[in-house]
Design goal:
409 residues; mainly alpha; three-stranded mixed sheet; globular; binds zinc ion
Length: 409
């Protein structure tokens, strides 16, 4: 009661004291970059060291294949990639897709808005320069991580040496015989319609069964690894691309992302090469960075699979490469092969496949091919994108060594 009276007196007596103004509420801002100064710019240049580190790692990798094979490909890489792959395999969609598309959208937004603000005089030179150098620094970090997480595998001992395959000039008759063996086996596997999935137009079609196929490829790698120690690393399960049509426009059938250890497959392409592509990208994941080596590993994996669809796809991938080489050296022999050893089903599948890819021929695919070509050349693939065709040499040497292309069949 007394307290109430006192406080009433206080309130009623004397002049009212002016109260302090309330602190200003922070303005809600969706996206504001703080203004960078030259100090920020110079601090950020230290990150360019990663670019230098990346280049040093690249130089180191091209120098010593024996060292890389032992220490990296068979030592550090399998558990490292296994750990990353285990984390990303929690999700059944490609984490890399989310990261790449988000990075492109956010990156372009920041770059364009910084550019516009700079030219409208709303930001100063050091700010714009700091934004630009941040992009170069991020590129440097990614470049260095690329080698640490996977890229060293480009410099490991070539598969031909590890499998003791003798790469040498071979006659066109030998090439023809290899093609015949592949075509006859493909025809035999394709004829088993109780195991091969075809649609009502007699075209090979895995529509809707991709995940089961990708799971099986992983299981097949586990089995193959028990037979051949070189392939003993268990791969991450391949995943279907988020926007496969975008990949088709770029002429990409599959891609391996080392940062997330994810083999990603374009499932918009015809089914014919989907299992072979998944096996190829998984071969990258088990440590075979070189394109021709990854193709050869994919062929060994697919052709030894007890799943007819995977087997057929792998054989057709090898046949397409070898038949193309045959066509270049003797088109009459190729015509004979096509007429006498390709079944109608195989012809349907190939025609459907090439027709699909033909629709994307154009400038975008040309640019994408050039980028890929430069990337492969930079990483030591001597003939860039044309090295895809060199699987023919490996298959010829393999067949010569074991008298069959189907040793693990
Ligand atoms: Zn590849």
């Amino acid at each position: 009661m007394a307290n109430a009276q006192n406080s009433a007196k206080k309130r009623s007596g004397g002049a009212p004291r002016p109260s302090a103004p309330p602190p200003a509420a922070p303005r809600p801002r969706l996206f504001v970059l703080r203004e960078f100064g030259w100090r920020d710019f110079f601090q950020r240049t230290t990150w360019l060291l990663f670019l230098f580190v990346g280049y040093l790692l690249y130089l180191l990798s091209v120098k010593s294949s024996g060292f890389i094979e032992k220490i990296f490909s068979k030592g550090i890489y399998p558990p490292l990639s296994g750990l990353v792959g285990t984390l990303t395999s929690i999700f059944n969609f490609p984490i890399a897709g989310i990261l790449i598309y988000s990075a492109i959208i956010i990156g372009l937004f920041i770059l364009i808005s910084s550019f516009v603000k700079f030219f409208m005089g709303q930001t100063r030179v050091p700010h714009f320069a700091t934004v630009l150098i941040t992009y170069v620094a991020i590129g440097g970090v990614l470049f260095a991580c690329f080698y640490l997480l996977w890229g060293f595998n480009y410099s490991r001992i070539p598969l031909s040496n590890s499998l003791e395959l003798k790469i040498e000039d071979r006659s066109k008759e030998e090439l023809y015989n290899l093609c015949v063996e592949l075509a006859d086996k493909a025809s035999e596997v394709r004829a088993n319609t109780s195991k091969i999935v075809i649609d009502d137009k007699n075209i090979f079609s895995l529509e809707g069964n991709y995940q089961a196929c990708f799971d099986k490829i992983r299981t097949d790698y586990q089995k193959l690894g028990k037979q051949i120690d070189l392939f003993s690393k268990i791969p991450s399960t391949p995943k279907a691309a988020l926007f496969p049509r975008v990949l088709s426009r770029l002429g990409i059938s599959g891609i391996y992302i080392p940062y997330t250890a994810e083999p990603i497959v374009n499932t918009n392409q015809p089914s014919l090469m989907i299992p072979a592509t998944a096996a190829h990208e998984a071969a990258h994941n088990i440590g075979f960075a070189n394109e021709e080596d990854a193709n050869m590993v994919a062929f060994i994996l697919c052709s030894s699979s007890d799943d007819a669809n995977i087997k057929y796809s792998g054989i057709m991938m090898a046949l397409a490469e070898c038949a193309s080489s045959l066509n270049k050296v003797d088109s009459a022999l190729y015509t004979k092969l096509y007429n006498e050893h390709y079944s109608q089903g195989m012809k349907n599948d190939l025609s459907h496949y090439y027709k699909y890819w033909d629709q994307f021929n154009g400038k975008i695919q040309e640019i994408s091919d050039n980028v890929n070509d430069s990337y492969l050349k930079f990483n030591g693939e001597p003939t860039g994108i044309s090295s895809y065709g060199r699987i023919t040499d490996l298959l010829l040497a393999y067949r010569n060594k074991y008298s069959t292309a189907f040793r693990w069949n």
